[in-house]
Amino acid sequence: MKAVILANGEFPSHPTPLNELLHAPLLVCCDGAIEYLEQMAITPNALVGDLDSVKEHLKRKYESILYYDPDQNSNDLTKSVRWCLNQRITNIVVLGATGKREDHTLGNIGLLGSYARMGANIVMLTDTGTFRPLLASSRLDSYPGQQVSIFSPNNQTVVFTKNLKYPIVNQTLPELWMGTLNESLDDWFELTFSPGPLIVYQKY
């Protein structure tokens, strides 16, 4: 089973995330994002969050699928990921988690490594590409010329790359910009690193 989580950021417009939304086998809605689904006449399987952004008439309408989580130490996206994991659903696609506010965008991207450590096989789709957390060295599918950026939440992580235009050879990436604006040379590239996680962006 795969779950698609719709967060309350900018609603997706690119065909790739939209296709995931429209064909989700199980759709989880974060709090106020229910407004988007209402406009599209889409009913989610679960509406999760502290529900502070859900209007009263919508709380009544979706009462049977409301999952209230009052934890103020986590955001609604984290609550939704946790709900999925509690249902034994580990394959998760996140949509609508960027845009609107840059601080929310950075926070949501930064949380991907935590979700992976919780046991989620998770990917975030935006209108330009994908963000994927890696806990261990990996070979990723790509295409020649694909734009790639690598982010290292742990300043101690040593990274070695293969098949990228600008090689990273046993370096740490202590600043956010240091692994950005790279380019794949083939239909795959490889990242060898320790310790994890890394977060990898790949443009569509």
Explain this structure.
This protein is α/β, with parallel strands linked by helices and 204 residues long. It folds into two domains: 2-127, Thiamin pyrophosphokinase, catalytic domain (Rossmann fold, 3-Layer(aba) Sandwich), CATH 3.40.50; 135-203. The chain has six helices and 13 strands. The strands form two sheets. A ten-stranded mixed beta sheet has the order 4-3-2-1-5-6-7-13-9-11, with helices on both faces. Strands 8-12-10 form a three-stranded antiparallel beta sheet, with no helix packed on it. The radius of gyration is 18 Å and the shape is elongated. 37% of the residues are buried. The mean pLDDT is 96.
How many beta strands in the DSSP annotation?
A: 13
**Percent of residues in helices:** 10-25%
Category from helices, strands and their pairing: alpha/beta
Q: Detail the poorly predicted runs.
A: none
Order of helices and strands: EHEHEHEHEHHEEEEEEEE
Average residue pLDDT: 96
Keywords:
204 residues; alpha/beta; Rossmann fold; three-stranded antiparallel β-sheet; 6 helices
Outline the fold blueprint.
Layout: E1 2-6, H1 15-22, E2 27-30, H2 34-39, E3 46-49, H3 56-61, E4 66-68, H4 76-86, E5 91-95, H5 102-110, H6 112-117, E6 121-125, E7 129-134, E8 138-141, E9 147-151, E10 158-162, E11 182-183, E12 188-194, E13 198-203
Parallel strand pairs: 1-2, 1-5, 2-3, 3-4, 5-6
Antiparallel strand pairs: 6-7, 7-13, 8-12, 9-11, 9-13, 10-12
